[in-house]
Design goal:
The structure holds two protein chains of two kinds.
Chain A lengths: L4 E2 L2 E4 L5 E6 L9 E5 L6 E4 L13 E6 L2 E6 L8 E8 L6 E3 L3 E5 L1
Parallel strand pairs in A: 2-10
Antiparallel strand pairs in A: 1-3, 3-7, 4-5, 4-8, 6-7, 8-9, 8-10
Chain B lengths: L2 E5 L2 E3 L5 E8 L7 E7 L5 E7 L6 E3 L7 E6 L4 E6 L8 E8 L10 E4 L3 E5 L2
Parallel strand pairs in B: 2-11
Antiparallel strand pairs in B: 1-3, 3-8, 4-5, 4-9, 5-6, 7-8, 9-10, 9-11
The chains are: A mainly beta, B mainly beta.
């Protein structure tokens, strides 16, 4: 088993670009998925696979990966993007899923 | 409209049991792999369990293995989580989540989530 590590908090000025990262050994093997969660709401999938957005997710959200680090980039952050963001991936066994601890994004 | 609706949460004493249900609609439930994910108050997300579309393959997080049982009834379009020997640390909102990829293992790409049901384990 392994862990996924995220920075607890990140801030970005309105309209600027922000990158949220997720580190873990399993990311060398498996892609990360990324979720946005606003207070009192269920998580919403924003990125999965190499860099895929589910229907309805704005194209300002993108994903990338290098080595043991996956990244979620928001290009031109909007006020409504303020939320908690979680990464996940399969663990090293491939039979379980790990979540990162989450990153609280503040849009200034 | 694709929808997942959880029910069955509540207050239970340590050592007790609860059965959560997830009623689904708007898609062919029998074609999708499903998961349970939980979130303790003020904490992050934790994957709990996975079941293949046919029910033939099941996986659990180490934290619940041996105490929780996931199952499904494709005729009723429903997913279940039987929780036994509950502990205080099981207190959380429990979400059912649809796996958008069909791989035979939990992919992590959960595209549809219910609103969650709260489970509180306390004396």
């Amino acid at each position: 088993s392994s862990e996924l590590t995220q920075d607890p908090a990140v801030s970005v000025a309105l309209g600027q670009t922000v990158r949220i990262t997720c580190q873990g050994d399993s990311l060398r093997i498996y892609y990360a998925s990324w979720y946005q969660q606003k207070p009192g709401q269920a998580p919403v999938l924003v990125i999965y696979g190499k860099n895929n957005r589910p229907s309805g997710i704005p194209d300002r959200f993108s994903g990338s990966s290098s080595g043991n680090t996956a990244s979620l980039t928001i290009t031109g952050a909007q006020a409504e993007d303020e939320a908690d963001y979680y990464c996940n991936s399969r663990d090293s066994s491939g039979n379980r899923v790990l979540f990162g601890g989450g990153t609280k994004l503040t849009v200034l | 409209e694709v929808q997942l609706v959880e029910s069955g949460g509540g207050l239970v004493q340590p050592g007790g049991s609860l059965r959560l249900s997830c009623a689904t609609s708007g898609f062919t439930f029998s074609s999708y792999e499903m998961n349970w994910v939980r979130q303790a108050p003020g904490k992050g997300l934790e994957w709990v369990s996975y079941i293949r579309s046919s029910g033939s393959t099941i996986y659990y997080a180490d934290s619940v293995k041996g105490r929780f049982t996931i199952s499904r009834d494709n005729a009723k379009n429903s997913l279940y989580l039987q929780m036994n020997s509950l502990r205080a640390e099981d207190t959380a909102v429990y979400y059912c989540a649809r796996d958008m990829l069909t791989t035979g293992t939990p992919s992590g790409a959960f595209d549809i989530w219910g609103q969650g049901t709260m489970v509180t384990v306390s004396s």
